[in-house]
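Example S7 (C-alpha coordinates).
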Protein backbone atom coordinates (compact mmCIF):
# COMPACT_ATOMS: atom_id res chain seq x y z
CA UNK A 1 0.00 0.00 0.00
CA UNK A 2 2.85 2.39 0.78
CA UNK A 3 5.29 0.97 -1.77
CA UNK A 4 7.36 -0.89 0.81
CA UNK A 5 8.31 -4.41 -0.16
CA UNK A 6 8.86 -6.82 2.67
CA UNK A 7 11.12 -9.82 2.28
CA UNK A 8 9.45 -13.19 2.64
CA UNK A 9 9.98 -14.34 6.19
CA UNK A 10 11.64 -17.68 6.52
CA UNK A 11 12.08 -19.68 9.67
CA UNK A 12 15.55 -21.00 10.42
CA UNK A 13 16.02 -24.45 8.91
CA UNK A 14 13.02 -24.09 6.60
CA UNK A 15 13.53 -24.97 2.94
CA UNK A 16 13.76 -22.07 0.44
CA UNK A 17 10.43 -21.06 -1.16
CA UNK A 18 11.08 -22.78 -4.53
CA UNK A 19 12.08 -26.00 -2.82
CA UNK A 20 9.07 -25.78 -0.54
CA UNK A 21 6.73 -25.50 -3.56
CA UNK A 22 8.26 -28.65 -5.06
CA UNK A 23 7.60 -30.41 -1.77
CA UNK A 24 3.98 -29.22 -1.71
CA UNK A 25 3.46 -30.43 -5.30
CA UNK A 26 4.93 -33.85 -4.43
CA UNK A 27 2.68 -34.14 -1.37
CA UNK A 28 -0.42 -33.08 -3.33
CA UNK A 29 0.34 -35.64 -6.02
CA UNK A 30 0.95 -38.35 -3.40
CA UNK A 31 -2.41 -37.57 -1.74
CA UNK A 32 -4.18 -37.85 -5.11
CA UNK A 33 -2.26 -41.05 -5.91
CA UNK A 34 -3.21 -42.62 -2.57
CA UNK A 35 -6.83 -41.55 -3.07
CA UNK A 36 -6.94 -43.11 -6.52
CA UNK A 37 -5.61 -46.42 -5.18
CA UNK A 38 -8.20 -46.50 -2.42
CA UNK A 39 -11.28 -45.59 -4.44
CA UNK A 40 -10.60 -46.67 -8.01
CA UNK A 41 -8.59 -49.92 -7.83
CA UNK A 42 -9.21 -53.47 -6.65
CA UNK A 43 -6.24 -53.03 -4.29
CA UNK A 44 -8.37 -50.62 -2.25
CA UNK A 45 -11.14 -53.13 -1.58
CA UNK A 46 -9.78 -54.34 1.79
CA UNK A 47 -9.13 -50.76 2.92
CA UNK A 48 -12.64 -49.69 1.92
CA UNK A 49 -14.04 -52.61 3.91
CA UNK A 50 -11.90 -51.54 6.89
CA UNK A 51 -13.30 -48.00 6.71
CA UNK A 52 -16.83 -49.39 6.59
CA UNK A 53 -16.18 -51.61 9.65
CA UNK A 54 -14.89 -48.52 11.47
CA UNK A 55 -18.12 -46.64 10.55
CA UNK A 56 -16.28 -44.07 8.46
CA UNK A 57 -18.57 -43.16 5.59
CA UNK A 58 -17.26 -42.85 2.06
CA UNK A 59 -18.39 -39.23 2.03
CA UNK A 60 -16.31 -38.40 5.11
CA UNK A 61 -13.29 -40.38 3.93
CA UNK A 62 -13.37 -38.61 0.57
CA UNK A 63 -13.80 -35.21 2.25
CA UNK A 64 -10.58 -35.79 4.20
CA UNK A 65 -8.87 -37.29 1.13
CA UNK A 66 -8.18 -40.60 2.85
CA UNK A 67 -6.12 -42.83 0.58
CA UNK A 68 -4.13 -46.04 0.39
CA UNK A 69 -0.37 -46.41 0.13
CA UNK A 70 0.37 -49.31 -2.22
CA UNK A 71 1.50 -52.66 -0.85
CA UNK A 72 4.04 -52.92 -3.69
CA UNK A 73 7.22 -50.97 -2.85
CA UNK A 74 8.28 -48.37 -5.38
CA UNK A 75 4.90 -47.62 -6.97
CA UNK A 76 4.72 -44.07 -5.59
CA UNK A 77 8.40 -43.41 -6.35
CA UNK A 78 7.93 -44.48 -9.98
CA UNK A 79 4.80 -42.35 -10.39
CA UNK A 80 6.53 -39.30 -8.88
CA UNK A 81 9.60 -39.84 -11.06
CA UNK A 82 7.47 -39.99 -14.26
CA UNK A 83 5.95 -36.62 -13.35
CA UNK A 84 9.21 -34.90 -12.40
CA UNK A 85 8.26 -34.66 -8.71
CA UNK A 86 10.84 -37.04 -7.27
CA UNK A 87 13.21 -34.41 -5.81
CA UNK A 88 10.40 -32.78 -3.83
CA UNK A 89 9.23 -36.17 -2.56
CA UNK A 90 12.74 -37.08 -1.42
CA UNK A 91 13.00 -33.79 0.45
CA UNK A 92 9.68 -34.41 2.21
CA UNK A 93 10.76 -37.92 3.16
CA UNK A 94 7.99 -39.67 1.20
CA UNK A 95 10.68 -41.38 -0.87
CA UNK A 96 14.08 -42.56 0.31
CA UNK A 97 17.13 -43.19 -1.80
CA UNK A 98 19.35 -46.01 -0.60
CA UNK A 99 21.79 -48.56 -2.02
CA UNK A 100 18.93 -50.54 -3.56
CA UNK A 101 17.45 -47.49 -5.31
CA UNK A 102 14.27 -45.60 -4.45
CA UNK A 103 11.93 -46.74 -1.66
CA UNK A 104 8.47 -45.54 -0.70
CA UNK A 105 8.22 -44.54 2.96
CA UNK A 106 4.63 -45.75 3.37
CA UNK A 107 3.73 -49.26 2.25
CA UNK A 108 0.32 -50.91 2.60
CA UNK A 109 -1.24 -48.27 4.84
CA UNK A 110 -4.41 -46.26 4.99
CA UNK A 111 -3.20 -42.69 4.45
CA UNK A 112 -4.44 -39.46 6.02
CA UNK A 113 -3.10 -36.25 4.47
CA UNK A 114 -2.40 -33.50 7.00
CA UNK A 115 -3.04 -29.99 5.71
CA UNK A 116 -1.84 -26.60 6.82
CA UNK A 117 -4.04 -23.52 7.27
CA UNK A 118 -3.79 -22.80 3.51
CA UNK A 119 -5.09 -26.28 2.68
CA UNK A 120 -1.77 -27.61 1.37
CA UNK A 121 -0.75 -31.19 2.17
CA UNK A 122 2.26 -30.88 4.48
CA UNK A 123 2.50 -34.38 5.93
CA UNK A 124 0.82 -37.77 6.14
CA UNK A 125 -0.36 -40.09 8.85
CA UNK A 126 -0.73 -43.76 8.13
CA UNK A 127 -2.67 -46.66 9.64
CA UNK A 128 -1.33 -50.17 9.23
CA UNK A 129 -3.89 -52.44 7.59
CA UNK A 130 -2.03 -55.68 8.19
CA UNK A 131 0.30 -56.88 10.92
CA UNK A 132 3.94 -55.83 10.63
CA UNK A 133 3.63 -53.49 7.67
CA UNK A 134 6.98 -51.96 6.77
CA UNK A 135 7.66 -48.23 6.93
CA UNK A 136 6.48 -45.74 9.52
CA UNK A 137 3.14 -44.68 11.00
CA UNK A 138 3.39 -40.98 10.33
CA UNK A 139 5.83 -38.47 8.89
CA UNK A 140 6.34 -34.77 9.38
CA UNK A 141 7.72 -33.11 6.29
CA UNK A 142 10.26 -30.26 6.41
CA UNK A 143 7.63 -28.12 4.66
CA UNK A 144 5.55 -28.03 7.85
CA UNK A 145 8.21 -27.79 10.56
CA UNK A 146 7.54 -24.88 12.84
CA UNK A 147 4.28 -24.15 11.06
CA UNK A 148 0.67 -24.95 11.69
CA UNK A 149 -1.19 -27.91 10.28
CA UNK A 150 -4.79 -28.98 10.59
CA UNK A 151 -5.86 -32.57 11.08
CA UNK A 152 -9.18 -34.16 11.94
CA UNK A 153 -7.47 -36.34 14.56
CA UNK A 154 -5.83 -33.58 16.60
CA UNK A 155 -7.01 -33.03 20.19
CA UNK A 156 -8.10 -29.51 19.26
CA UNK A 157 -10.27 -30.85 16.45
CA UNK A 158 -11.99 -33.31 18.75
CA UNK A 159 -12.71 -30.59 21.34
CA UNK A 160 -13.96 -28.09 18.81
CA UNK A 161 -16.06 -30.57 16.83
CA UNK A 162 -18.83 -30.34 19.36
CA UNK A 163 -18.79 -26.56 19.21
CA UNK A 164 -18.43 -26.36 15.43
CA UNK A 165 -20.04 -29.37 13.84
CA UNK A 166 -19.73 -27.88 10.35
CA UNK A 167 -15.98 -28.47 10.16
CA UNK A 168 -13.05 -30.07 11.91
CA UNK A 169 -10.43 -27.36 11.57
CA UNK A 170 -7.91 -27.18 14.34
CA UNK A 171 -4.26 -26.35 14.34
CA UNK A 172 -1.34 -27.33 16.48
CA UNK A 173 2.33 -26.51 16.55
CA UNK A 174 4.59 -29.06 14.84
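Recovered sequence:
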Amino acid sequence: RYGVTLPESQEPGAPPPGEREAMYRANEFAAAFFGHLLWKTPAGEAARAYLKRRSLSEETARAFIVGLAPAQPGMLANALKRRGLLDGAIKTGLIRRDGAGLRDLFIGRLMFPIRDAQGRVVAFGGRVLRARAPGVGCRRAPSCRGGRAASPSSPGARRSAAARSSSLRAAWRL
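Notes on this example. The chain is about 35% helix and 20% strand.
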